[in-house]
């Protein structure tokens, strides 16, 4: 009898990563095995070892309270399978397959994304599914891109243990985020419920300071009193007939100052043109925040959208790991090799004349700056293509020559008063041949010597309030203030929107956002304090690189968090009614707005009421019903679990189904792409779906009948 082959189980973070890793390590000779509920794993042999590659689907475990309706604040929490939570049921299929696979394995390698979150995902699979021994012995594959060569290297030389600092720091962050976020959010909702109202409210350790940044800016804008100021322009002409308009460089704040310029018309002046040459260095490599900022500037993508697109590109092997703070490309990534591969995609590589790339100041111990691997994904969507293209251009431009720009300045002196105008000309494009730059050419003539003043023009202007933050500039501000992590900042921005605290593209604080900030300032001010959040972040960063006494250090951070949350919870708990009152009106205003946004078209049954998307608290799912209820009882069920919104075009008009004329809806579901659909069960577009549902029901019936017989 042949002895059983030694079996290694590689645990990945996402299905696509499992597929890539299996293909890389097996020379594409892996066998793909798909379970009946459509979760795949891979099996192959390598150097006489049997290898299984299985996957998680992000977090398979989450922090939950040990008993429902615990004390307030509640610190009695533990890791539980994520599938026990509403909306995350889909993770069970992955959990089950891994459970089966661990039984066959005698060695474990964690190959999740190499960062804090990835470490926690991998650690939880190993300790809660494979067990104590596996936890101690598990090895760790470290890689920054899903390319064959890097994966093979990572597999041949894995780290002997998990990255314990990252694992413990990650776990600690999950705990304290729960302590703050769940406890305080519950407190706020409880406070609101004293007025008989319900609304999902939340506040958190990073969300608090982020909200304060937005509200502070909003109040600054609200309290801003514009002041008038004046600008003076002269039109001058030289002896050759060249004309140019020059401006007085100082804004005049008093109208009386204008008199000083009145007499200048028809006077003679003296012009002088200076040209200053500037060498413009190429941009530095992309860290995540810069990538997000640039994608917002150029394509209008929110930081969360950019993160998602970049993650897809990474999983497809097209780019390196995007969640990085680094602005450096180490030479190990193989500059020449990548540039050579990129040649197949773009002619622009010819501008890459330097052997070494530029580099920025920021560093990241885990990953290099974002770079294209040169291995292109076959199928690629519109957004992915744009973002990929930009990453390629950024990479190439880091190897390009500096650009040369001429700054031209004409200064005109009229009786001791000086005026000027500036021009700009790109003389040598260098890297600007490759990357979308911000320089705008402004042509001005060269004028020297005597000029005549032909015309005087004044412009009255108003000082402007500071600008609101955009999703991208808020992410940048949070990073600058060391609030949140590169993995969480984009999500914080999204939460501010989904809670109704902000609206519009340039983030305008709503009445509810302003009220929430004011209320917290009164009763639990520390939750808004960025200093506290930052010092907690620093503790977590220290934990991440710590080598010993990790458990003790974790406990210390948690104890501090508990103490702070207890104090905040007391501030809320002691003032429930006051807080409720304070939030009631603003909450109602947001509710009214949402109600309007969720209203669809006239009810086809009664013709009087309007159909509206509703959320059923009891069954925790969305449905469509007629707002003439209870007179009209028309309802339509919607698919479970997703968040449903009407599908609107850019002008805000509802888009209708081509087949039946019902308004179309969008479903946003975790782990799935947004999906546009018609909710009319009688619509042709739903025929197949309805048929399937009926078949499924019939099948279940038959199965039940059979079971009964036995
Ligand atoms: Zn109706
Ligand atoms: Zn339809």
Description:
With 710 residues, the protein is α+β, with helices and mostly antiparallel strands. The chain is 38% helix and 20% strand. It contains 19 helices and 23 strands. Strands 2-3-4-1-7-8 form a six-stranded mixed β-sheet, sandwiched between helices. A six-stranded antiparallel β-sheet has the order 10-9-14-11-12-13, with no helix packed on it. The radius of gyration is 31 Å and the shape is globular. The mean pLDDT is 93. It binds zinc ion (2 copies). Residues 657, 659-660, 662, 678, 680, 683, 685 line the site of one zinc ion.
Mean pLDDT: 93
Q: Given the structure, what is the number of helices?
A: 19
Tell me roughly what share of residues is in helical segments: 25-40%
Number of strands: 23
Q: pLDDT below 50 for ≥5 consecutive residues: which ranges?
A: none
What fraction of the residues are assigned to beta strands by DSSP?
A: 15-25%
Which ligands does the model contain, each kind named once? zinc ion
Q: Number of folding domains?
A: 5
Q: Any idea what the CATH architecture of the largest domain is?
A: Orthogonal Bundle
Instruction: Please summarize the sheet with the most strands.
Output: 6 strands, mixed
* Structural shape: globular
Radius of gyration: 31 Å
């Amino acid at each position: 009898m042949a002895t059983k082959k030694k079996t290694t189980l590689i645990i990945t973070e996402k299905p696509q990563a499992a597929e890539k890793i299996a293909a890389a390590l097996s020379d594409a000779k892996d066998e793909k095995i798909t379970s009946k509920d459509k979760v795949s794993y891979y099996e192959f042999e390598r150097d006489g070892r049997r290898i299984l590659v299985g996957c998680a689907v992000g977090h398979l475990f989450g922090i939950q309270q040990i008993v429902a309706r615990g004390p307030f604040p509640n610190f009695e929490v533990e890791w539980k399978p994520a599938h026990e939570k509403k909306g995350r049921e889909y993770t069970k299929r992955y959990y089950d397959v891994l459970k089966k696979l661990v039984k066959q394995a005698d060695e474990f390698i964690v190959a999740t994304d190499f960062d804090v979150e990835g470490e926690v995902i991998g650690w939880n699979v190993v300790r809660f599914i494979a067990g104590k021994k596996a936890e101690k012995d598990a090895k760790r594959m470290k890689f920054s891109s899903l390319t064959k060569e890097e994966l093979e290297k990572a597999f041949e030389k894995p780290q002997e243990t998990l990255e314990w600092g990252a694992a413990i720091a990650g776990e600690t962050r999950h705990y304290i985020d729960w302590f703050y976020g769940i406890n305080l959010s519950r407190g706020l909702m409880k406070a609101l419920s004293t007025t008989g109202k319900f609304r999902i409210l939340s506040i958190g350790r990073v969300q608090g300071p982020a909200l304060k940044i937005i509200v502070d800016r909003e109040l600054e804008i609200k309290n801003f009193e514009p002041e008038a100021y004046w600008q003076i322009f002269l039109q001058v002409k030289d002896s050759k007939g060249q004309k140019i308009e020059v401006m007085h460089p100082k804004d005049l704040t008093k109208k009386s100052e204008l008199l000083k310029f009145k007499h200048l018309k028809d006077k003679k002046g003296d012009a002088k043109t200076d040209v200053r040459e500037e060498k413009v260095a190429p941009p530095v490599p992309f860290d995540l925040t810069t990538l997000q900022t640039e994608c917002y500037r150029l394509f209008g993508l929110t930081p969360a959208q950019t993160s998602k697109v970049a993650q897809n590109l990474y999983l497809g092997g097209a780019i390196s790991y995007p969640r990085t703070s680094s602005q450096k490309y180490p030479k190990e990534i193989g500059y020449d090799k990548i540039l050579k591969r990129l040649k197949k995609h773009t002619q622009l590589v010819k501008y890459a004349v330097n052997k070494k790339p530029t580099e920025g100041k920021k560093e990241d111990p885990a990953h290099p700056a974002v770079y294209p691997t040169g291995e292109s994904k076959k199928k690629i969507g519109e957004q992915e293509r744009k973002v990929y293209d930009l990453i390629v251009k950024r990479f190439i431009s880091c190897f390009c020559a500096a650009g040369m720009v001429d700054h031209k300045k004409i200064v005109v002196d009229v009786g001791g008063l000086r005026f000027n105008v500036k021009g700009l000309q790109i003389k040598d494009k260098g890297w600007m041949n490759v990357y979308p730059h911000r320089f705008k050419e402004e042509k001005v003539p060269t004028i020297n010597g005597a000029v005549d003043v032909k015309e005087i023009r004044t412009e009255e202007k108003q000082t402007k309030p500071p600008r609101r933050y955009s999703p991208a500039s808020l992410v940048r501000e949070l990073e600058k203030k060391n609030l949140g992590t590169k993995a969480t900042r984009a999500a914080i921005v999204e939460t501010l929107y989904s809670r109704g605290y902000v609206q519009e593209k340039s983030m305008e604080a709503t009445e509810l956002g302003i009220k929430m900030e004011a209320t917290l300032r009164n009763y639990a001010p520390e939750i808004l304090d960025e200093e506290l959040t930052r010092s907690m972040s620093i503790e977590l960063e220290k934990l991440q690189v710590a080598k010993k006494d990790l458990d003790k250090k974790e406990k210390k951070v948690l104890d501090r968090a508990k103490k702070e949350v207890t104090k905040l919870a007391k501030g809320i708990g002691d003032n429930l009614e006051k807080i409720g009152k304070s939030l009631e009106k603003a909450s109602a205003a947001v509710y009214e707005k949402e109600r309007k946004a969720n209203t669809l078209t006239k009810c086809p049954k009664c013709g009087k009421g309007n159909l509206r998307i509703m959320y059923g608290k009891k069954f925790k799912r969305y449905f469509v019903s007629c707002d003439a209820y209870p007179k009209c009882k028309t309802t339509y069920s919607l698919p479970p679990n997703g968040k449903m919104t009407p599908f609107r075009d850019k002008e805000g008009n509802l888009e209708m189904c081509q087949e039946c004329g019902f308004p179309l809806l969008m479903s946003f579901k975790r782990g799935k792409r947004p999906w546009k659909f018609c909710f009319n069960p009688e619509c042709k577009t739903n025929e197949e779906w309805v048929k399937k549902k009926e078949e499924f029901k019939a099948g279940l019936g038959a199965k039940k009948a059979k079971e009964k017989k036995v």
